[in-house]
């Protein structure tokens, strides 16, 4: 899988959680990439995605900034 | 014609082109010929206790057919007694009252030494002083030049001593042989400098002769490090000028020096905050008359931009220079290959495949002819293909639509706030 395809796959996972009503509330970054934690306000469910590609790490942080400002 | 005159911390000259303190400004004969050719100012070859030089003194790097891409010297300051230089400065100033003559000075870091030379030099009518805290070889071994210029407290103290005695504006010339030039620039400002200039030469060893194993240059089989200058140092000098220009604590005018060879280089330095420029290597390579093209080119450039005075250009690009953390992470460009112009040399493919992101393919067309194509989704916009491409216009970097701007600093602030 090319780097771009990996990005698209990771982006799809992020978009999927967002469409299900999850919000990003926290992210931990380390040597292996980013572990992005999502929270579903209504159900109180938490989910974590391991985001590796650079473009997806940019993508989730932009979403996070948008969510914080809205 | 646009107004090319400048006023750098009170030193006026008819245009922004000064000769830097170096062999071209060694004598009255030379400086007068330079003024006749059109140079607006000259920083006299550094004055101090007359020194002894060695032979040989210079070396140059020729790169792929370009002669003198970089230049190196192990020459010291003036070897002529002060009174000889002062007489010639006086005569030159009398003949060219509207041109700027700046005396470059270097003495031991002692208050009385600075007071003495400042007084003697100002008595002959110089327009300003430039303190040479930059010469990296020879003089530095004696505690002067860059040995002084690398120690912020010495820069501040010596500037202060000069200012105690000086009646004309004081420019402090900084050494690039330091990790962060803004530290010594600030020290100069704290000492009372009216302006700063940069860069002096960079420590260098030009090469080693593969047959004799001597250094290049060598003096009877022995070498010592020299100072590097010329076109190769321009990016280093430009960054140092820009770093000082954008630092709010460095509030004095800047005289830009380092690899300036034509009017375009000069404009870049002025846009990045220089109030005027100084030239050494290009004049040594091509002679005084290069200033004619510099003046004409600058004039046409200003006219083409509808700018009536060169002073209006000063620092215009400084707000565009920032820290990496303020750059937009989402800004996205990708390479596009114009197959009408491309000669299929494959250099871009090899560069991308071997050393970048493997996104240029050689494709066989329907007519059986092969052509190069960028897979845009995998291109990171690094520019390498356009840099190695030998054909002008064959590769262009094209802006892509992207998400809302987001800088690293903004990103980290948001992520950290969620901890
Ligand atoms: C041969 C030679 C001698 C120099 N002598 C002096 C000097 O006496 N005082 C000084 O401040 N700088 C001296 N310089 C440095 C130049 O003034 C200038 O800062 C440096 O060469 C960078 O400019 P360039 O790239 O246009 O040459 C000398 C440079 C060269 C090449």
UniProtKB/TrEMBL annotation, chain A:
This is Uncharacterized protein. The lineage of its organism: Bacteria, Bacillati, Bacillota, Bacilli, Bacillales. It comes from the Bacteria. It comes from Peribacillus deserti.
Automatic annotation (TrEMBL), chain B:
Its cofactor is FMN. One of its GO terms (molecular function) is iron-sulfur cluster binding. Coiled coil: none annotated. Keywords: Flavoprotein, FMN, Iron, Iron-sulfur, Metal-binding, Oxidoreductase. Pathway: Pyrimidine metabolism; UMP biosynthesis via de novo pathway. Transmembrane segments: none annotated. It comes from the Bacteria. PROSITE patterns: 4FE4S_FER_1, 4FE4S_FER_2. Its EC number is 1.3.1.1, 1.3.98.1. It is an enzyme of class 1 (oxidoreductase). It holds the Pfam family DHO_dh. One of its GO terms (cellular component) is cytoplasm. CDD domains: DHPD_FMN. It catalyses: 5,6-dihydrouracil + NAD(+) = uracil + NADH + H(+); (S)-dihydroorotate + fumarate = orotate + succinate; 5,6-dihydrothymine + NAD(+) = thymine + NADH + H(+). SUPFAM superfamilies: 4Fe-4S ferredoxins, FMN-linked oxidoreductases. Residues 333-365, 370-400 form the 4Fe-4S ferredoxin-type domain. InterPro entries: 4Fe4S_Fe-S-bd (IPR017896), 4Fe4S_Fe_S_CS (IPR017900), Aldolase_TIM (IPR013785), Dihydroorotate_DH_cat (IPR005720). NCBIfam families: PRK08318.1. Belongs to the dihydroorotate dehydrogenase family. Type 1 subfamily. Belongs to the dihydropyrimidine dehydrogenase family. Homodimer. Heterotetramer of 2 PreA and 2 PreT subunits. This is Dihydrothymine dehydrogenase.
